[in-house]
Specification:
Layout lengths: L12 H32 L2 H12 L1 H13 L4 H24 L5 H25 L10 H29 L2 H20 L15 H14 L1 H17 L2 H12 L4 H23 L7 H21 L3 H29 L5 H30 L1 H36 L13
Helix pairs in contact: 1-2, 1-6, 1-7, 1-10, 2-5, 2-10, 2-14, 3-5, 3-8, 3-14, 4-5, 4-7, 5-14, 6-7, 6-11, 6-13, 9-13, 9-14, 9-15, 10-11, 10-14, 10-15, 11-13, 12-13, 12-15, 13-14, 14-15
Length: 424
């Protein structure tokens, strides 16, 4: 199958099938995400409430995701994903019915968000570890990760905008119902996939010992340790934009769900632009510097949005924010998956997901509390300053990081010896 180099991982039939199903599912997920935040704000008119719901939707990642990584290193990842998709369908259907009949309350919405957070905490690391079993050539793994980001951010561009229009026209229940249907696409494609057998750890070893071994391995590793902390710091600072956006749309711009969806879609546009550029990269060299640049771009975007009172300028700032957040997370994920051993992949990827996803609810809770006291624009400013400080600290470690990565890349054949003096 002839494809451009930027789409090379789609030559693998298994990955291509899964990618199509995931695209449909992610579109529904983004519609539901914006609807949940808007519903929380509509029920209470409080950013603290949206912050609480955002916190509950993501906090399970802190506890569930590390366990999911160890589980993904032991059992069939395909079977685990099928079970998770079925549970997500049931949850979205229940949310649809409850909202449509008018029985939804903030405590019920918070409970739904928490349950979905548990399922997402299981699904995300399993899905990322599953990629290596779907591609025919392991050198295409960085491209598969980049295309997954294009998938997520392309649907982030479209999904919230569609969700905002649906909310304005027919209500939040429509978004929840369409999301329930979208999971069927993943189930259909999983039924058509026969993944490669990947190396597993022994199921006879203690489960919690495996979990702890993954954490020890990660934080004893000089590269993995820095990347995890950096991703966590950036996610903590940038992710709260979703729970602050309803207040900005209503209080700063005097509008409603439509503008809220447009601003969130701007994040998707920026992230999609960056993901396309990332997919066109020929290899992983230079990603440590890329990460430094994208984290700085995210900080500039958030700070600019805090001061902007113009819709067009604000849209551009949120696009920068999306590009920066995507660039940081995908660069870190790609470096991690390029240097980690196969039998530890699920656990290390789960720790990455814990820091990236698990830091977000802490940021949501802190930003929601701060916005009720300082206002949403000032909270955006504080988040931008935090991200800028993280980027500056990372720059200090960059030379040491490169020195550690070079021999790993050489040993794995990722870069030839002639490139020893080039950037990692």
């Amino acid at each position: 199958m002839l494809l451009p180099n930027a789409l090379r991982s789609l030559k693998s039939p298994n990955f291509r099938r899964y990618y199509i199903g995931q695209a449909v599912s992610m579109l529904g997920s983004w519609m539901q995400s914006v609807a949940i935040m808007w519903l929380a704000y509509r029920l209470t008119n409080s950013t603290a409430s949206t912050g609480l719901v955002g916190f509950l939707a993501m906090v399970p990642a802190i506890f569930v995701t590390p366990l999911a990584g160890a589980l993904a290193d032991r059992v069939s990842r395909k079977k685990l994903l099928v079970i998770i998709q079925i549970a997500l369908i049931a949850l979205a259907a229940a949310l649809t019915i409850t909202t449509y009949t008018g029985h939804i309350t903030l405590p019920a919405l918070a409970a739904f968000a928490f349950c979905q957070g548990i399922l997402n905490g299981l699904e995300v690391p399993t899905r990322h570890a599953f990629f290596v079993q779907l591609i025919d050539d392991k050198t295409d793994l960085p491209n598969a990760i980049a295309l997954n980001s294009i998938n997520i951010n392309g649907t982030r561009l479209i999904g919230p905008a569609i969700g905002g229009l649906l909310i304005a026209q027919v209500g939040e229940a429509a978004c929840f119902g369409l999301n329930a249907l979208s999971y069927l696409a993943v189930l259909f494609q999983l039924a058509r996939i026969t993944p490669k057998i990947d190396r597993k750890i022994s199921a006879n070893a203690g489960f919690m010992r495996d979990v702890l071994d993954g954490w020890r391995y990660t934080f004893a590793h000089p590269v993995l340790r820095v990347l995890m902390l950096m991703v966590g710091a950036v996610s903590f600072a940038i992710s709260p934009y979703t729970i602050l956006m309803p207040a900005i749309s209503v209080e700063t711009f005097g509008q409603g769900a439509k503008l809220n969806g447009i601003f969130i879609s701007a994040v998707g546009l920026g992230a999609l632009t960056g993901a396309i550029a990332f997919a066109m990269r020929p290899n992983v060299r230079g990603l440590t510097s890329w990460l430094a640049g994208t984290s700085a771009i995210a900080a500039i975007g958030v700070i600019g949005f805090a001061f902007s009172r113009n819709e067009g300028l604000s849209f551009g700032c949120m696009a920068m924010t999306g590009l920066g957040l995507m660039g940081t997370s995908v660069a870190a994920n790609t470096i991690i998956q390029s240097i980690v051993d196969d039998d530890k992949r699920g656990r290390v990827v789960s720790i990455y997901s814990t820091f990236f996803i698990g830091s977000a609810p802490l940021g949501h809770l802190a930003a929601g509390w701060l916005a009720d006291r300082l206002g949403a624009p000032n909270t955006f400013l504080a988040c931008g300053i935090w991200c800028a400080c993280a980027s500056l600290i990372y720059l200090r470690y960059l030379p040491k990081l490169r020195a550690h990565i070079r021999p790993i890349y050489l040993n794995r054949g990722i870069i030839p010896i002639v490139h020893l003096e080039e950037k990692s």
